[in-house]
Amino acid sequence: MPSLHLSAPVEQKNSPHSLLPFLQSQSQQTLNKLYSRPSSCLSIFRLLAPLQQQIIMNLLWLESTISSSTMAAWVVREEKKNYDAALSPLFRLHILATSPIKLALSATFKTSMRQALTGGGTTGSFGVPAPKDDKYPPMGIDELDGYALERWETILHYMVSSGTGQNSMRPSKDVLFLLQQSGLMANSQGSLQITSAGFQFLLHSPHAQLWDLLLQYLRLAEERNMDLVEVLSFLFMLSTMELGREYSTEGMNSTPQVAATHKAMLNDLRDYGLLWQRKPSSRRFYPTRLATTLTSSSPPLPTSTGPSSGPKEGFIVLETNYRIYAYTDNPLQTAVLNLFVALKYRFPNLVVGSITRDSVKKALSNGISAEQIISYLIAHAHPQMRKNNPLLPVTVQDQIRLWELEKNRLKSQEGYLYTAFTSPADYELVLNYARQLEVVLWENAAKRCFFGSLDGHANIKNFIERRTGGNA
Amino acid sequence: MDDISQASHLSVVVDLSPMHWDLSAREAPENTYPLSLASFLSQLLAFLNTHIACRHENTLAVFGAFPGKSIMLYSSSDPVSPSAEMHANAYPPFQAVDSAVVQRITAELDALELRDDEEEAPSALVGALAKALCYVNRITLPPSANSKAQANGFHPGVLPDPRILILSVSPDLATSYIPIMNSIFSAQKLKATIDVCQIYGPNTVFLQQAAHLTGGSYILLERRDALLQYLIMSFLPPPSIRRTLSVPTQEQVDFRAACFCHKNIVDIGFVCSVCLSIFCQPLAVCTTCRTKFPIKTLQRLNAARPLLATATATGNANGRPRVQSGAVLGANGGVGGAVANGAR
């Protein structure tokens, strides 16, 4: 048990969801408009930490406000810090009304959240199911998964292969633009090349990748003059929809402007594989698994491993002799491995390679960190590997970290070199003064010179001038 | 803190004894805060929805204890066939839970009315609890438990802290003492927490013990108009949250046991020194293991009975009947002295 917990990617455990900082930067007005939809409230609620959820729930059904001290009385004394830390984002999200002594949910949030839990109202924010279509048979969940997987892997595969110069299927122009805007790819010599941020992106969990892209999309939406509230609530609506059910685009557009926003989003999200439409002009759509698991924390996304590529949990076996066996036939996974592994053999369901100094240094020079390599290996470890404690061989883990340290052998520091002292006594005097200031970085008594850091220079210069001035 | 972001499982055992719900729904002066089954159900559904709302992966199972019968009302692992009627104003999983639970309960209660027995059988709370435990056991152990790693709990699908919430309205049923104790021990083994909310009626000794022994919380509902708030504040948080936001715990736990012979809850009982069966009076032969006790011991214990009855009872923290060393006579096969349970 402990090894698994220690090894799990740290970012997911402790830091808040990547969308929350974005929401916190929005104005209270925007957020309130967002909170008027029950589905948005529910989705945001899901992204919060469990402690915050409990605080909200404790307050949800109270009609009156409650004083902060009453609420704080429930907190175990040693955990006060965690409790306070949990509260402040809720204030910034304007879920809790700002008041120093009273605790209360914002009125809009409270109404919508209650409505979400009890089901009622007429907002229609959970999506309008389309009436049964007799012309076409309904889409199966497998087909939807396949579609989402194909779309998503096209994007990732394009990113990977751009680095190696191979050609692969190009995603649509909008996707390319988004990749370029987000800094994951950059234009060099007329073609798009993956950047170091892009390499790091590839090693993230599929769930994190999806949100990374969607966050970029949200930022772009602002520039494209799309209504942010509409964009967000459409995303949240998708996340609360049921997989394998067809929804209608009608009934949720009130104004032409909103309808245009939805239309644009349908097009974009279809490109990312979040939803499926029979044809672009269709008035009905199916959300895919990518969309319906947006607010879940663990990624049961089809992307984690394709349906064709062996066991769902993981596929990598790493031995103490740095050899790596990857049970996969997925070209994307092979390509990602190729980022930091020297591949040797390739079989129909197995790729064999080894982690070498050169392969790791290549990855490091691409901007991938040792931690990322290790966490990728852990996240995709084969079930057989999970018997080991620690999960990965320590020698390999340490060596990868050491190779990273090798890169950081040189450290530069600005400063001044003091030379040409007339006598050893002079030299000693100035050096001692510099030592007292703790600014000496290097010294050489034989050559009578020393190197002092930048911030000590003014003092040393004054000191020398005072001395020479006194002698003269 | 590690398991803080993981999914949790909640099994809810609902006592649906019509007789006690009828008593509970009566207006003042019998009840200060009457609570009808309908309003209870609507609050329960809101609570169940809240549990599912917290995390996409949270799982839920609901068991109903009817008179003489217990059934599973809902479980998220084998969902009911999706009803055709879905509307845009509610989250689909919520609709599925709500409709399944309400439909099953209505069907069962209708069936009960048709049966028309002269006397209502006692509520099968223990049966429902046992089913809940079986369910927890099933989801805790992954289907392919042949690999060692999975058996150790490394499987990604393993739920960290299964919980069982018992919502009871009936009083203690002394006949169910042994099955309840057995359920408690299996819950301990499964590392499942049992929470208990006694919604109507007096404190129940056995459920109190169940909550205490599995580290859950026990609440005797006083303000029954505030049921939902009680449920959310005390029973929604998983154990990891309970370390930060405390939940009410019991100050005093009634540790009395029931005797095996008459199923009475006893303050002072007699324990077989061989198999630890509990009796309310000294017996010549243990009914469980057939051990014969010397006649002398019996006489002495019988003589001491009135004296024992007035003796101050000492508490017993681990819930197992303890033999008071002073009262044991004869190494092999004396009726081992008195159990003194009950921390009152």
UniProtKB/TrEMBL annotation, chain A:
<dbReference type="GO" id="GO:0005675">
    <property type="term" value="C:transcription factor TFIIH holo complex"/>
</dbReference>
<keyword id="KW-0539">Nucleus</keyword>
<protein>
    <recommendedName>
        <fullName>RNA polymerase II transcription factor B subunit 2</fullName>
    </recommendedName>
</protein>
<comment type="similarity">
    <text>Belongs to the TFB2 family.</text>
</comment>
<comment type="function">
    <text>Component of the general transcription and DNA repair factor IIH (TFIIH) core complex which is involved in general and transcription-coupled nucleotide excision repair (NER) of damaged DNA.</text>
</comment>
<keyword id="KW-0234">DNA repair</keyword>
<dbReference type="Pfam" id="PF03849">
    <property type="entry name" value="Tfb2"/>
</dbReference>
<dbReference type="GO" id="GO:0000439">
    <property type="term" value="C:transcription factor TFIIH core complex"/>
</dbReference>
<feature type="compositionally biased region" description="Low complexity">
    <location>
        <begin position="293"/>
        <end position="311"/>
    </location>
</feature>
<dbReference type="InterPro" id="IPR004598">
    <property type="entry name" value="TFIIH_p52/Tfb2"/>
</dbReference>
<keyword id="KW-0227">DNA damage</keyword>
<dbReference type="InterPro" id="IPR040662">
    <property type="entry name" value="Tfb2_C"/>
</dbReference>
<keyword id="KW-0804">Transcription</keyword>
<dbReference type="GO" id="GO:0001671">
    <property type="term" value="F:ATPase activator activity"/>
</dbReference>
<dbReference type="Pfam" id="PF18307">
    <property type="entry name" value="Tfb2_C"/>
</dbReference>
<dbReference type="GO" id="GO:0003690">
    <property type="term" value="F:double-stranded DNA binding"/>
</dbReference>
<keyword id="KW-0805">Transcription regulation</keyword>
<dbReference type="GO" id="GO:0006289">
    <property type="term" value="P:nucleotide-excision repair"/>
</dbReference>
<comment type="function">
    <text>Component of the general transcription and DNA repair factor IIH (TFIIH) core complex, which is involved in general and transcription-coupled nucleotide excision repair (NER) of damaged DNA and, when complexed to TFIIK, in RNA transcription by RNA polymerase II. In NER, TFIIH acts by opening DNA around the lesion to allow the excision of the damaged oligonucleotide and its replacement by a new DNA fragment. In transcription, TFIIH has an essential role in transcription initiation.</text>
</comment>
<feature type="region of interest" description="Disordered">
    <location>
        <begin position="293"/>
        <end position="312"/>
    </location>
</feature>
<dbReference type="GO" id="GO:0006366">
    <property type="term" value="P:transcription by RNA polymerase II"/>
</dbReference>
<feature type="domain" description="Transcription factor Tfb2 C-terminal">
    <location>
        <begin position="398"/>
        <end position="464"/>
    </location>
</feature>
TrEMBL record, chain B:
<dbReference type="GO" id="GO:0005675">
    <property type="term" value="C:transcription factor TFIIH holo complex"/>
</dbReference>
<keyword id="KW-0805">Transcription regulation</keyword>
<dbReference type="Pfam" id="PF03850">
    <property type="entry name" value="Tfb4"/>
</dbReference>
<comment type="function">
    <text>Component of the general transcription and DNA repair factor IIH (TFIIH) core complex, which is involved in general and transcription-coupled nucleotide excision repair (NER) of damaged DNA and, when complexed to TFIIK, in RNA transcription by RNA polymerase II. In NER, TFIIH acts by opening DNA around the lesion to allow the excision of the damaged oligonucleotide and its replacement by a new DNA fragment. In transcription, TFIIH has an essential role in transcription initiation.</text>
</comment>
<keyword id="KW-0539">Nucleus</keyword>
<dbReference type="InterPro" id="IPR004600">
    <property type="entry name" value="TFIIH_Tfb4/GTF2H3"/>
</dbReference>
<keyword id="KW-0862">Zinc</keyword>
<keyword id="KW-0863">Zinc-finger</keyword>
<comment type="similarity">
    <text>Belongs to the TFB4 family.</text>
</comment>
<keyword id="KW-0479">Metal-binding</keyword>
<comment type="subunit">
    <text>Component of the 7-subunit TFIIH core complex composed of XPB/SSL2, XPD/RAD3, SSL1, TFB1, TFB2, TFB4 and TFB5, which is active in NER. The core complex associates with the 3-subunit CTD-kinase module TFIIK composed of CCL1, KIN28 and TFB3 to form the 10-subunit holoenzyme (holo-TFIIH) active in transcription.</text>
</comment>
<dbReference type="GO" id="GO:0008270">
    <property type="term" value="F:zinc ion binding"/>
</dbReference>
<protein>
    <recommendedName>
        <fullName>General transcription and DNA repair factor IIH subunit TFB4</fullName>
    </recommendedName>
</protein>
<dbReference type="GO" id="GO:0006289">
    <property type="term" value="P:nucleotide-excision repair"/>
</dbReference>
<keyword id="KW-0227">DNA damage</keyword>
<keyword id="KW-0804">Transcription</keyword>
<dbReference type="InterPro" id="IPR036465">
    <property type="entry name" value="vWFA_dom_sf"/>
</dbReference>
<dbReference type="GO" id="GO:0000439">
    <property type="term" value="C:transcription factor TFIIH core complex"/>
</dbReference>
<dbReference type="GO" id="GO:0006355">
    <property type="term" value="P:regulation of DNA-templated transcription"/>
</dbReference>
<keyword id="KW-0234">DNA repair</keyword>
